[in-house]
Design a protein that fits this description.
With 580 residues, this protein is of the alpha/beta class. Helix content is 39%, strand content 14%. It has 23 helices and 17 strands. Helix 4 packs across helix 18 (439-449). The longest helix has 15 residues, at 69-83. The structure holds thiamine diphosphate.
């Protein structure tokens, strides 16, 4: 048995001279060089050298200690989506990395730029089923833009530089850097960061002018055009160009869930969201259109329903920065690969003077008729709080200015339907992967990025129970997010499907045995509020929004309310269920 001090002496004696930096130090230097000042993470054995170095760098980089690695990734996503900056995560090997995978996949599906640094067992133990070893590169391969297993400390500066470039360029997404413990410990020649060679061209590819001209001609000539706009508009910062273009040609616009806020909801040209729970007018307009202009979208099945009958009369122009998206689900008649903002600017510069007026009045008359026939609506109630009315009230109390994050389920759809988003990055939701538990940590990350912004997480009672431990993180760092739980005692969206498509067989969706959410909030050091009756809703929400610190509002809503309209999975717009 070696006494502790003796061990420490031996270790010290074996430590090489300190002139050359360790891999961990090079990593921190490289992160600083990328402008990183915020990391969300959770320590463990394989990242101890990195945490040691991080402590020394704490004046430059603030580390936010989460309560679960999934929370760290969602916080980084919230941070990234609120600002467009790259979010950074640091977790340990094995379970640290696997806990992060849901967030990584979520970021991949929603094109969110994050860099996730994972610890790995020392190189000589890789492949031996060592303690806390998993093949992180293998596990994450299908859900990252790129990943690295770092073999030499001296490679770190170049890898970090490339990882950040890849995360934010083109279609943004997650990049994983897996660092074996011996690599973060190794001392190495330090290549100066500004001398790192960089194989990529950072210039965006030019837009094909002839194709752009042809696309514009088709748009101008179309009788029933629709602009179908997605998250690409937000990521590209193309919001103003889109607005100018739509206004110039008086074109109807329908945003996807991820495109919400990319075009102002209250604008007369906006038809509301399309897809499974989109508006009647948006879905009918797409179904009857003769030209669908798809801008920064990926033809998700929640938008298209049955592909064979999606927009059956339409030519399709698809503009996307990611060539892999083009033709993946729908074969376009004309494709433009490139930044959607640049393409729109190109269109704007080409629109001939005489075309700057609407020639599609009868199309607009038809659309207005659909809007009048089936507006978004719900039945009010004197006795029960209707979930839609909660969102309306939230909109009123926040004067439409809140940044909203959500989980996944019915509440998410009601937020998308009833909170009219007016600016990009105002709704941060899990669109592609549909991750319950996303809302609370994403709100924390967004609030950290935007300290003056009111941030409200609207969550279900199911999703809240997946990541509510991050309330501790919010309290610890004084990030006063507001959490609005739409508590229906059910896994509501699943219950709705069971009601509608499985003869009301409510199989395993009753979650009415739950903690007292007010007490739970208080146990975390947050404030807890509850509203059970319509008459008290406004006052309770007001009090929660006024509260200076982290606040949780348990809103007990009508248990069996359904989200309408609904295009059943695999159906087409004409089979939309609109009744309430
Ligand atoms: C991690 C995860 N597991 C399962 C699902 C499937 N799922 C989608 S919606 C939903 C119900 C969500 O219930 P709740 O959070 O209470 O929200 P509500 O639908 O009632 O608004 C479930 C289980 C999912 N999206 N994510």
């Amino acid at each position: 048995m070696i006494a502790h001090s003796e061990f420490a002496n031996r270790f010290a004696a074996a430590t090489p001279p300190a002139e050359e930096p360790r891999g961990a130090e090079m990593l921190i230097q490289a992160l600083s060089h990328e402008g990183v000042d915020t990391i969300f993470g959770y320590p463990g054995g394989a990242v101890l050298h990195i945490y040691d170095e991080l402590w020394r760098a704490r004046e430059r980089i603030t580390h936010y200690l989460v309560r679960h690695e999934q929370g760290a990734v969602h916080m980084a996503e919230g941070y990234a989506r609120a600002t467009g900056r790259v979010g950074v995560v640091l977790v340990t090997s094995g379970p640290g990395a696997t806990n992060a995978v849901t967030g990584i996949a979520n970021a991949y599906m929603d094109s969110t730029p994050i860099v996730v640094i994972t610890g790995q067992v020392p190189k000589h133990l890789i492949g031996t089923d060592a303690f806390q070893e998993v093949d992180t590169v293998g596990i994450t391969r299908p859900c990252v833009k790129h990943n690295y297993l770092v073999r030499e400390a001296r490679d770190l500066p170049a890898i970090v530089r490339e990882a950040f470039y890849l995360a934010r360029s083109g279609r943004p997404g997650p990049v994983v850097i897996d660092i074996p413990k011996d690599v973060s410990a190794a001392r190495s020649n330090y290549s100066r960061l500004d001398h790192v060679s960089f194989p990529f061209s950072t210039q965006p590819a030019p837009i094909d002018k002839d194709l752009a001209r042809e696309a514009l001609q088709q748009i101008v000539n179309a009788k029933r055009p629709v602009l179908y706009v997605g998250g690409g508009i937000v990521n590209s910062g193309a919001v103003d160009s889109l607005l100018s273009f739509a206004e110039l040609l008086h074109l109807p616009v329908t945003p996807t869930l991820m495109g919400r806020g990319g075009f102002p909801s209250s604008h007369p040209l906006c038809l509301g969201m399309l897809g499974m729970h989109g508006t009647y007018a948006a879905n009918m307009a797409v179904a009857e259109s003769d030209l669908l202009v798809a801008l920064g979208v990926r033809f998700d099945d929640r938008v298209t329903g049955k592909l064979a009958t999606f927009a059956p009369h339409a030519r399709v122009i698809h503009v996307d920065i990611d060539p892999a998206n083009i033709g993946k689900n729908v074969t376009p008649t004309l494709a433009l690969t490139g930044d959607v903002g640049q393409v729109l600017n190109q269109f704007l510069s080409l629109v001939p003077e005489q075309e700057r007026k609407s020639s599609i009045e009868s199309w607009w008359n038809q659309i207005r008729t659909w809007q009048r026939q089936q507006p978004l609506r719900f039945e009010g109630s004197q006795n029960q709080i209707k979930p839609q009315s909660v969102i309306r009230e939230l909109h009123r109390l926040t004067e439409g200015e809140a940044l909203i994050t959500t989980d996944v389920g019915q509440h998410q759809m009601w937020v998308a339907q009833f909170y009219p988003f007016t600016r990009p990055r105002q709704l941060i939701t899990s669109g592609g992967l549909g991750t319950m538990g996303f809302g609370v940590p994403a709100a924390i990350g967004a609030r950290l990025a935007l300290p003056d912004q009111l941030v409200v997480a609207v969550v279900g009672d199911g999703g809240f129970q997946m990541t509510n431990q991050e309330l501790a993180t919010a309290v610890q760092y004084d990030l006063p997010v507001k959490v609005l739980i739409m508590n229906n005692g059910y896994l509501g969206m699943v219950r709705q499907w069971q009601e509608m498509f499985y003869d009301r067989t409510y199989s395993e969706v009753d979650i009415s045995v739950a903690p007292d959410f007010v007490k739970l909030a208080e146990a975390y050091g947050a404030a807890g509020f509850r509203a059970e009756r319509p008459a008290e809703l406004r006052e309770v929400m007001e009090a929660a929004l006024r509260h200076k610190g982290v606040a949780v509002v348990d809103v007990v809503v009508a248990k069996e309310e359904n989200v309408f309209p609904m295009v059943p999975a695999g159906a087409d717009a004409h089979q939309m269920i609109t009744q309430i």
